[in-house]
């Protein structure tokens, strides 16, 4: 009887191992799928502007091109080079974050000052579009990687301005338990419910052509998510199509338990 028991126990643990193994293989396959999809996307995104630049330069090299067209082609060639440049910067960012997923260089800083700094930088773009850009920020000391959080907020506010045609973009901050909660709210075109789950994926855009035209790489929110996850937090979004969008995230306040769990690591 002892033997039967032993045998049953052994069978059970073998079964457990087999099912764990199946799960691991499944996850590995999924990771491989995501990876090869990413590589496919990258080559597509890179090839398009390169071919466009070839095309414009070849046309420009011909003697017969009227002066008026020459200028237009040169501008289009430049716009494509800008796109490539943005794409490379974002890809390098992703690679860095990927390899050193949990590397953040936290310090104590005043979030209000950072938000004001970003506001000054993005104000001209908002003014250009006739949007009201406002900030309601008390002084709050947080413990996080200042440069990375600058990237996150710049992405969110810049997107809010890009995808809003009239009304306002507001950045608000308040204390919430041990955290500072930051939100970026716009009165823009909003995001349909069917897209909301996917906008943090690499290269996912609601309207690809429009986003590209505005210089978007489709990587901004993926980078935002990666940075926040490296801080042990995550971005949230709520949106109503045609009405506007609200992104928010939380950061540990200086001296909180959450801050203590963010250990400074080696440099990026
Ligand atoms: P992109 O470079 O295209 O802006 P992001 O990763 O920053 O890439 O954003 C992904 C997509 O999410 C955008 O293409 C856009 O469709 C949508 N999106 C992001 N922010 C907003 C917003 N504030 N309002 C409406 N749509 C947004």
Describe the protein's architecture and organization.
It is a single chain. The protein has helices spanning 2-61, 67-99, 111-128, 146-162, 193-196, 208-213, 220-230, 257-260; strands spanning 107-110, 132-136, 141-144, 168-176, 179-186, 236-240, 244-252. The protein is an alpha+beta fold and 268 residues long. Strands 2-4-5-7-6 form a five-stranded mixed beta sheet. It has a two-stranded antiparallel ribbon with strand order 1-3. A hairpin with a 2-residue loop joins strand 4 and strand 5. It is globular, with a radius of gyration of 24 Å. The protein binds adenosine-5'-diphosphate. Adenosine-5'-diphosphate binds at residues 155, 159-160, 163, 186, 188-191, 199, 204-207, 211, 216-222, 245.
Give the neighbour order of strands across the main sheet: 2-4-5-7-6
Category by helix and strand content? alpha+beta
What portion of residues is helical?
55-70%
Overall geometry: globular
Characterize the largest beta sheet: strand count, sense, and whether it forms a barrel: 5 strands, mixed
In angstroms, what separates the terminal alpha carbons?
61 Å
Written as H for each helix and E for each strand, in order along the chain, the element string is HHEHEEHEEHHHEEH
Radius of gyration: 24 Å
Model regions low in confidence, pLDDT < 50 over at least 5 residues: none
Q: How would you name the oligomeric state of the polypeptide chains in this document?
A: single chain
DSSP summary: helix tally = 8
Strand content: 15-25%
């Amino acid at each position: 009887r002892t033997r039967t028991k032993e045998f049953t126990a052994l069978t059970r643990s073998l079964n457990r191992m087999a099912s764990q193994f199946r799960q691991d293989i499944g996850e590995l396959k999924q990771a491989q799928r995501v990876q090869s999809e990413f590589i496919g996307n990258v080559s597509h995104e890179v090839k398009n502007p390169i071919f466009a630049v070839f095309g414009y330069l070849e046309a420009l090299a011909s003697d017969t091109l009227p002066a008026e067209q020459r200028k237009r082609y040169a501008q289009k060639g430049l716009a494509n080079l800008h796109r490539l440049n943005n794409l490379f910067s974002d890809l390098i960012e992703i690679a860095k974050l990927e390899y050193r997923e949990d590397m953040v260089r936290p310090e104590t800083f005043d979030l209000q000052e950072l938000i004001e700094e970003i506001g000054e930088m993005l104000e001209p773009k908002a003014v250009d579009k006739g949007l009201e850009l406002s900030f309601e920020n008390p002084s709050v000391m947080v413990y996080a990687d200042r440069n990375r959080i600058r990237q996150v907020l710049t992405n969110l506010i810049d997107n809010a301005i890009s995808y809003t045609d009239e009304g306002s973009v507001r950045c608000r901050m308040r204390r919430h338990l041990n955290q500072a909660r930051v939100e970026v709210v716009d009165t823009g075109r909003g995001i349909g419910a069917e897209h909301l789950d996917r906008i943090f994926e690499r290269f996912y855009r609601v309207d690809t052509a429009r986003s590209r035209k505005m210089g978007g790489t489709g990587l901004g929110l993926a980078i935002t998510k990666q940075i926040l996850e490296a801080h042990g937090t995550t971005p949230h979004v709520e949106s109503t199509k045609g009405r506007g969008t609200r992104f928010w995230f939380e950061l540990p306040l200086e001296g909180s338990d959450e801050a203590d769990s963010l250990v400074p690591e080696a440099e990026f």
